[in-house]
Amino acid sequence: MNNQSWVQQSLALFRKDLLAETRTRVAFGAMGVFSFSALLLISLAMVGLKGVMLQNSTGQSVPAWNNSGKMSLLWVLLCFAAFAGLSHSFVYEEETGTASTLKLHMMPQAVYAGKLLFNTTVLLAVSLVITPLYMVMTGMEAGTIPMFFTVMLSGTVSLSAVATVVAALAARARSTGALFGAVGLPMLTVLLVLIMNAARQCYIRSESAVQYVRPVIGIVGFGVLIVTLSALLFHFIWED
Amino acid sequence: MSFWKIFLAVLMAYVIYGAFNIAHGAIGFAEKGVAARIIFFHVPCAVYSSVAYLVATWYAVKHLWLLGGPNKSVEALEDSDFKSATAMELGFLFCILATITGSIFAGVQWGSFWNWDPRETSIVIMLLLYASYMLLRTAFTSDTAKRARLSAVYAVIAVIPSIYLIWVVPRVLHTMHPTTTLSNPADTSLSYKLVLYPSFLAFTLLFIWLMQLRVSSSKLLEARKKRRLREMEAQR
């Protein structure tokens, strides 16, 4: 163990991963292609609903394919994209045998922090590309702009927190790929319920700020709790 | 056969009898209140589907605590692991029972077997969480210590989504479920309390008994597996 602090160690790991990513572009490429295809599939599947109006229970006519619906599907897409690409960060350390080097030279918490930082960066980049494309292709509106950005940002960060810890768990098991999705998605479903609840607020004109803040606290709290517990327990996952 | 198991048999028989003959038809429920009789089985199952998760987490934390501690006895580690896994399996079982009884109740009372009520949503996600825990365990075959350690970590981390499911989601979103049946005794009539409270006791005892049986059977299976491995090594 060298005498760098864990912050320096995790930043070094982050730089290493980022450098490897700029050379191979595996994670970004996989998630990009995956989510773009999913985006096309969703837009094609829903093209028939464009302009269709429905009557709700109060007799008002509302679009069948509305903004909250579009937002929910965007999040389903991002969840699956995260699970398509983020397992890579731990799996390739095991595959190339570099996991042992990391175990020798770095604190487990620094590995966790570095990987979390890297995964969050990649996922943010992907959602930064995919969200505007999705908005153009499906005609989704942003609604209340600050709320929209808050939901997107807090959702993406929490999503990458869940995906990172499940990726670390699954990388230690056999048949990693299928397991990763099956183990992680039930946990993400809860987050998705919270995000959809918050996303609905983007499209509701509300007088009080509480209406906006409460669902966001739900998402941020979820992410913070996951990160805290993962950091506490990471050495059980990482070390033999 | 210990005394409390006979007591459990009598108690469960009383609950089944009482559900149909002691409790009166409840006002405001379908089929002249007869539909409400299912709550003597539905509510304890639903409560135990969450309690089981807390029990599982308790033993998962104990397992990790023992791993971090100075004296790592193999028996104690194995014991906490099996208890955690068993509680998860029982949670899965009670979750299925609560979902089925709830769906029947919803079909009769609300007119549709599935309404996307927040509690219905949370119980299916809970079911998925239990299933993914069991799935994670199947991914480790040879290394039981690693399986125990990693599934304990998963159990502890998945506490966050389950707490959200059990307490936060049904309170944040609008639910059709009554929320005061248990927390406010004045809302429940005497003939219901006479059956519902014994029913909780019966389900508690049933849970403990199932847990004991399953833990000892998994220990026996594990011991047999180890013995076979030793025999195979000896033959070589």
List keywords for this structure.
heterodimer, A: 240 residues, mainly alpha, two-stranded antiparallel sheet, 2% strand, elongated, B: 236 residues, 7 helices, 76% helix, globular
Give the arrangement of secondary structure elements.
The complex is a heterodimer of chains A (240) and B (236).
Chain A: H1 6-24, H2 26-45, E1 53-55, E2 61-63, H3 67-85, H4 88-95, H5 99-105, H6 108-138, H7 145-171, H8 176-202, H9 210-238
Antiparallel strand pairs in A: 1-2
Helix pairs in contact in A: 1-6, 2-3, 2-6, 3-6, 3-7, 3-8, 4-7, 6-7, 6-9, 7-8, 7-9, 8-9
Chain B: H1 3-21, H2 39-68, H3 74-109, H4 118-138, H5 144-157, H6 159-172, H7 190-235
Describe this structure in words.
- The complex is a heterodimer of chains A (240) and B (236).
- Chain A is an all-alpha fold and 240 residues long.
- Chain A contains nine helices and two strands.
- A two-stranded antiparallel sheet of chain A has the order 1-2.
- In chain A, α2 packs antiparallel against α3 (67-85), α6 crosses α7 and α8 (176-202) packs antiparallel against α9.
- In chain B, α2 (39-68) packs across α7, α3 packs antiparallel against α4 and α3 (74-109) crosses α5 (144-157).
- The chains are: A mainly alpha (240), B mainly alpha (236).
- Chain A binds chain B through residues 165, 169-170, 172-175, 179, 182-187, 189-191, 193-194, 197, 214-215, 218, 222, 225-226, 229-230, 233, 236-237, 240, and chain B through 64, 67, 121, 125, 128-129, 131-132, 135-136, 139-141, 146, 149-150, 152-154, 156-161, 164-165, 168-169, 172-173.
